[in-house]
Amino acid sequence: MLSLSVNGESHSVDVPADMPLLWVLRDVIGMTGTKFGCGIAQCGACTVHLDGQPVRSCVLPVGSIGSKAITTIEAIGDTPSGQKIQQAWLDVDVVQCGYCQSGQIMSAAALLKRSPNPSDADIDAAMSGNICRCGTYVRIRAAIKQAATGKLEILQTIVTSPEGAAS
Amino acid sequence: MKPKTGKPQTAEQIDLNRRHAIQSGGLAIAFLWLGGSGIASAAINARKQPGDAAAALADGNPAFAPNAFIRIGIDGTVRLVMPTVEMGQAIYTGSSMLLAEELGVGMDQITVEHSPPSDDLYGMPLLGGQITGGSTSTRGTWQVLREAGAVARTLLVAAAAAQWHVDPSTCTVDRGMVHHTPSGRSVGFGAVASAAGQLPMPDKVQLKDPKDFQLIGKPLRRVDSADKVKGATQFGLDVRVPGMKIAVVKACPTFDGKLASVDDKAARALPGVVDVIRIGDAVAVVGEHFWAAKQGLEALGITWDRGENANLTTQQLRDALAESALNGKSIVAREVGSRPADGKAVESVYQLPMLAHATMEPLNATVFVTSDKCEIWLGTQVPARVLDAAAKITGLSKDKIIVHNQYLGGGFGRRLETDSVEQALALAKQVSYPLKVVWTREEDIRHDRVRPMYHDRISAVLDANGRPAWYGYRTSGGTVLGRWAPMAMGKDGLDSDAVECVVEVPYEIPNLKVEWIRHDMPPGLIVGWWRGVGSTHNLFVVESFMDELAHHAGKDPLEYRRALLQKNPRSLALLNLAAEKIGWGGQPLPARVGRGIALGEPFGSRVCAIVETEVTAQGEIRLRRAVVTLDCGIAVNPSSIEAQIQGGLLFGLSAALYSEITIKDGAIEQGNFNDYRNLRINETPLIEVHRIENNEAPGGLGEVGTAIAAPALANAIFAATGVRLYKLPVDRDLLVQNANALKSVVSATVASQGRDDA
Amino acid sequence: MKRFLIIVAFVLILGSVAYFALNRTDSSDGTAPAIAGAPATADVLARGEYLAKAADCTACHTAPGSGKPFAGGVAFRLPFGTIYSSNITADMQTGIGNWSDSDFVRAVREGVRKDGKRLYPAFPYTSYTQLSRSDVLAIKAYLFSLPKISQPDQPNALGFPFNQRWAMGFWNAAFFKSQRFVADASKSPQWNSGAYLAGALGHCAECHTPRNVGFGLEHGNELAGEVLQGWRAYNITSDTAHGIGAWSDGEIASYLSTGHADGRGSAAGPMGEAVDNSLQYLKPEDTAALVTYLRSVPARGGKDPITIDAKAAPALASSDTAPGGDSADADSAGLKLFESACASCHQWNGQGQETPYASLLGTRGVNDISAANVTQVILHGSRMRLDGHDVFMPAFGRAYSDTEIAALANYVIAHFGNKQGTVTPDTVAQSRKL
Ligand code: FES
Ligand code: FES
User: Fold this and answer.
1) Which of B229, B579, B648 sits opposite A86 (nearest CB)?
2) Closest Cβ opposite residue B673 in set A43, A94, A127
3) What interface predicted TM-score (ipTM) does this complex get?
4) Which residues of B421-432 are buried (b: 16+ CB within 10 A; e: fewer)?
5) Per-residue pLDDT tens for B42-92?
6) Does the model's pTM come out above 0.80?
7) Which domains occur in chain B, in start order?
């Protein structure tokens, strides 16, 4: 029996120590917000926080966690940075299929907590491990900036009427 | 498309038996759009397994509202049932906007639901079945959904007017209320819903004048985001059913190979492993959880009968295709005039690779089969086909089968197939518990139904001014349509998709001949839809070739295209706008930086992309900027249009830069994102999307960005390096400036990367 | 002219005498020191199995993923061509089912096949020659107890003159000495066990000892490190700067038995295979014996010595999740690749996130300016199955260009080793071919 602290609640689970946290969360505890995308730490869909640090739960043996606090997408909204990120995600309307977004938001929330005003390079360093097949990257960048500055990163959509078109 | 059975399905039958419940429960409008029976279907909240009649009743809803699209409860709740599936394209939002616009409710007042399987009720007019694909969602539903909204509004107004004894035409509707201004009376939809439900259908309804649109045309937020940012949205892989076990599966790596034998002793001994089950070409280990099943799978000793394709290689496929392209029998798709005898002839051969989908959510299906019932939970683009497949495999009649559609973690055409659910059904019917069958990412890529490879010969004869007087196109490749919807094949067996965007080009070219050569792949190597098959492939060839022609004519690619677009003002406007926005012809660009134009009219839209890229001395590509101009007619939701174009463009750029499925020893070599690579955020340039507004009918969007990406990139690379790319993905070896560039130490630092961040 | 012929004849005679003199076989059975995992009292099959593991027969004779243990067919790309390992199952037609005990012993210890033809020293008879006859026969008994697999040997792809097996006699004359293990009475029993495990069974020298131009082991430079098939087998002498002299006993033992020692690095490539197939199965006493022996290997600097900066400034200036202190700017190609595909496991500070195996700081790999092993592991990945679970890194060779891998390797050397790497796209292209 292992005892895990997930989103402030303690869970006792009877699983092998080398089982990745991802499957403990999804299949044993039943929290499916954390996603499976690749299983080899290449896509970031499974990102959770361990004592506030983003980790890939698909390759994290549950036996190595000990008493560290696990935070998942289900509860990241309770942290200030998570709340800001989720709001910015809605404001900028980032999501498409949404499958990668749990992981994107977890990575972004960790970034914002660490660097309240991230540069483009900071965003790249924190977010490049998260793949989005739908291609929401442009808006992810905008949403992180909006969450950081509070300044409206307005949608880019630019309408040009036929009269206004260049000849 | 499989022929429709014409037999009522589960939900509909219940509906007929309990019609009274609807009438006391509120209003719901039956609406015919395919000449179907128009009877009802059940649907419930997305989180609670749509299509489940019992759950719907428990939820306090009539399980069988007699309307495919709109259900209004006596408490005023408005539920919209989505005919298409949501896989990221924001169609739930777009469809809601169409319905809500005419119904007269705000977006905040509605909830959306997945539709249950029914070709009759939810079939797409443009596709002839309940299918989400081909960028048809908005195009196909634009009229119908607005009419459905208008019918509901008309009935609600009529009911209120009757109650007040006033002329319906003196009433107005706003945010779910009917108002009668002269008498100062108002009533909520809920209060008149039941009465409205008793009224006969109106003969005709008045749709809003576009200038009065309150929702359509506004950049609105998506209706499905709130749950998605909290991890609360249920995708197929997230389904949990009581008593469910999880299977991880491995199918024979070769095409058409079979399972010979399995030694499962070690696997069965592992803790958490429940069972090992076999079907003809695959074996699955069932576990209490994914991990146990996966460990079990790895502990199996499997012997495959690798079949006749055991030694197949990509090169063999390429050679056979090239041979077909040269000597195969062609079908003429279109011919106008004839090839002029004189003029400068230009000819090129282009080749495109097989591609995987790699949807972010790997394929999966949860299936529970008992002797008299079958339930399936999955995200699919073709719910009605899933129902057909389930009936066939389980031997149950369709009224005993329930398909609970889920949100899709990406579709891109992969979920237009039923292979994975057929496999899950065959496995699940061997066990007594609900079984969730999960494909690992490796399984997902190695058993993809790939976008076909192509070998195309394109030629032109230029007149004295360098304008094409004739162009000829011979494309050869596998046919997706021929398998997937054989009856949709055209005259002489033409695959119309295979010649999309080449039978008609935006340019003024007086004579042309377009031919298609069907080249079937070896048995078992099944090709499938992708994010644009015909258009994505053909636009790469045609637009690369247009650049070649400009070069041959000694003209700037922009000027060259302009001259050929004089009779096509809509596309010309797009080209001009894109050129203006990127600053074409302005400041000179640094060395090895180039811009490439591509223009096309795919999926009923018109689009122009200009990509700016740097190519390093070693041949590495650095995307700097992209501008896309779009004319998609009436825009339903500009925000999601922008998102679709950006996402589609990145999908296309990612494929052009990195993607290729290759085969060795009869099996796909790639397996995960380390070898089937995807573009990442730090390679992503800023993508501007500019739209030209007009009131033309809406065009498609989901695949438009993808289709235009590769040619714009390839043309930019040509502008930067002078190297024409005749093959995808980009072969960086061809772009090396000189051999010395590869001999020097690659510094950890490069001088300029050049991403323009906003 | 005549005089010249006389000289030629004389040289030939002298050569033949030398040839036969130097190819003389040690006719003794030999005696092995005590091996904890294979006590003399144990059942011969159990002993054979343990010894076969300790000698890592499977590494060369089982094609990975084939499910055909000991059926051969593994390719060895050497500078002069490719050779394939043979089927050593007891199959009569395609294996060694009809080999007598003496046939087997001669092949293992002298490098001569049943048909009298000479083996190439890719098969380490040069080390196995030290084995006792009883140990060799225990291994044979074990192999013969396994399922026979019918799989014909694949012909080698060697050009002239390397395809002339008889010529190996000259090579043997120059570089091979048939000689049984002789215990050194002046050393502890544990040392002697270690010497036998390392020298006769584990054949460490085959990879770790530098080779001369004739591909012979450089005596006097034992275990000072060499590059083989693109992988660098590190200096494992007791040199404190360049070897493992500064490692604690526990670190060496941990590296041998688990493929990892904190702050020292993780095994990958051929060493990963050795841990996977062989070393992890050694009893702790035998591992300890190996440690004792390795400790006694005289310190040598070796070729291209690696200087480790265990406190590389850029890595120390980084956090778990963000880079810092890089001379490389944020737009560096290598940094961009690292942040995309590497950082989520290795972390910017090189600590290794989900598994200690991913830690980089202080390892020889990231301090080797040629980045031989960094390049190889990026290209081919790494996988060890240890005690029922996998330790792995995906292979990136298929989807990433030579230039990208060079940039990434140089970035890794700069960031975690604080040095300028020397990788060029061309050297990566070379590594790919190996
Ligand atoms: S599932 Fe963990 S990184 Fe992809
Ligand atoms: S939103 Fe679909 S994968 Fe990112």
Assistant:
1) B229
2) A43
3) 0.92
4) bbbbbbbbbebe
5) 222 222 222 333 333 333 333 223 345 777 877 888 888 777 788 888 888
6) yes
7) 13-229 (3.30.365.10), 238-308+363-438 (3.30.365.10), 454-752 (3.30.365.10)
